[in-house]
Amino acid sequence: MPEPTPLSVYKGIAHPWQCDGLGHLTTRHYVAMFDDASYHFLYEVFGWSGASDPEGRRAWVDARHVIDYQLEILAGDLLEIHATLSHVGTKSITVDYRMSKRDTGESAATLQSTGVLFDLAARRALAMDDELRSAAQRHLVED
Question: Which among 1, 55, 83, 93 has the fewest CB atoms less than 10 Å away?
Answer without folding.
Answer: 1
